[in-house]
Amino acid sequence: MNDGSWVIDASVLAKVYLKDEEHSALAADIVSRYIDGSLELIAPQVILYEIPRAIQAAVRVRRLDPEDGRQAIADFFALGVPVLGDPSSIQSMIQEAYDLAERVGCRLHDALYLVVAEQSGSPLLTADSTLYQRVKDRLSYVRWMTDFPSAGGSRP
Question: What are the C-alpha distances in Å from 46 to residues 9, 83, 138, 149, 153?
């Protein structure tokens, strides 16, 4: 059974590597389902920078050992989550994200996730409470992390 395609926010995916965060087990389950092929994940290109930045920040405040941080970054890239935003499309994606960020009052990099969700027709899964609170009543495709269907459950 395939649970469909989801846009995954860095706030969710970072929890896989930052195991002291709330809902890290749920994040690990989501990634496990991606690895076994029962779930498709996509993200904007910005995730390639956001996850390593979050890991480095955790190392700097000693939440992670430097070698564990290095391994976490390698593990993240080994996942191979498909990203949107190649040289031919990134400029238009950023412009669209800029307009959307202005319209809904979020940050530009958050709006890139929203644009990917809109373009792909897939829901966005986030653990970013600021983003979620800003858009939950306006953008029906945005889902809070804990609303993700459990293994074997139905898709919201």
Answer: 10, 8, 23, 25, 30
Q: Which of 2-6, 80-84, 105-109, 110-114 has the lowest mean pLDDT?
A: 2-6
Q: Is the pLDDT of residue 154 over 70?
A: no
- At 42, which amino acid appears? I
φ, ψ (nearest 5 deg) of residue 45? -55, -30
Domain ranges of the chain: 5-146
Which CATH number applies to 5-146?
3.40.50.1010
- Of 51, 22, 23, 21, the residue nearest 150 (C-alpha): 23
By residue count, the chain amounts to 156
Q: By percentage, how much of the chain surpasses pLDDT 90?
A: 87
Tokens of 156: 């919201």
Residue 148 has which token pair? 């993700």
pTM of the model: 0.90
Cβ–Cβ < 8 Å for 55, 17? yes
